[in-house]
Design a protein that fits this description.
It comes from Neolentinus lepideus HHB14362 ss-1. With about 270 residues, the chain is an alpha+beta fold. It has a five-stranded mixed sheet, with no helix packed on it. The protein has a four-stranded antiparallel sheet with strand order 2-1-4-7, with no helix packed on it. The N terminus is likely disordered.
């Protein structure tokens, strides 16, 4: 029973042991100046005992091309993870490299705009290696070359000093006019309405049929329209207002026709009398 339980673990271990390793082929580097003049171009060989030494100026560009393949069959492979590792002065940085489905990759290092993954450098060269990771293959770490580049600028202690305190400037408070001026202008605005109401009060008017069963439904529908607009301002959406308004409009048309007919009958009755 214990043997059966261990069989999956043994199979996984065997698959890891027999997983094919990854390597690269057709590796080549090219160094060019800022005016695109080719300074150096060579093939990289992983079989050599000593790593090639490369040197870049402050405006030079390094182009690296290679193909990731299986070590046994030479078939192009796209690893799940591919990084260039830079090591210098006890510090390191990694730069992701994009690999096609056929295993081909290209990397460009422009010293005019160095990547943030490049560690701080001095006069000692940077050791560059390639890291390959795949679920189906054994991981690989392949030393490529040593790279001499201009020393990075020393970090100033002031770069990490506290910044000045941020002070917020708010808009000054709005100046309010004197109360007397506000009262005068308020009286000017209200005065016409007071005069209008006063003139209306002198007029004689009567609505003897306002609450009759023929007119009251029409007046109620008009009041309902005003209530619908108020409800729309408070809570309703436009689609709901259109739906309720259409239904209420139909009711208003019917009740209005009835009210006009009743008003016509009242006028005819007054003329005959």
């Amino acid at each position: 029973m214990r043997l059966l339980c261990c069989l999956p673990l043994l199979a996984a271990a065997a698959a890891t042991v027999h997983a094919s390793a990854l390597t690269i082929q057709n590796a080549r580097f090219t160094i060019s100046s800022s005016d695109a003049t080719q300074l150096r171009s060579e093939q990289l060989s992983l079989d050599s005992t000593s790593l090639p030494s490369l040197s870049l100026g402050s405006t030079d560009t390094l182009k690296l091309t290679f193909q990731v393949v299986e070590k046994d069959g030479g078939k192009g492979v796209q690893p799940h993870q591919t990084f260039l590792r830079f090591e210098a002065n006890g510090e390191e940085g990694v730069q992701p490299v994009r690999v096609t489905s056929g295993g081909k990759a290209k990397f460009e290092l422009n010293m005019a705009k160095p990547p943030t993954s490049l560690p701080p450098t001095s006069t000692s060269p940077v050791q560059v290696s390639l890291l390959l990771g795949s679920y189906k293959h054994s991981p690989a770490s392949l030393p490529l070359f040593s790279l001499s580049i201009p020393p990075s600028a020393p970090v100033s202690p002031d770069s990490f000093a506290p910044l000045p305190e941020i002070t917020h400037t708010f808009r000054p408070e709005q100046k309010v006019p004197p109360k007397f001026v506000s009262a005068v202008f308020s009286a000017i605005v209200i005065a016409p309405w007071v005069v209008l109401l006063g003139l209306w009060s002198t007029l004689r008017y009567s609505t003897p049929h306002l609450f009759s069963p023929h007119v009251l439904p029409f007046v109620s529908s008009l009041a309902a329209f005003e209530g619908l607009l108020l409800w729309y301002w408070i809570d309703l959406k436009l689609g709901q207002v259109l739906l309720y308004g259409a239904l209420l409009g139909l009711v208003t048309v019917l009740t209005g026709k009835q009210a006009l007919g009743a008003a016509g009958d009242w006028r005819v009755g007054k003329k005959q009398s």
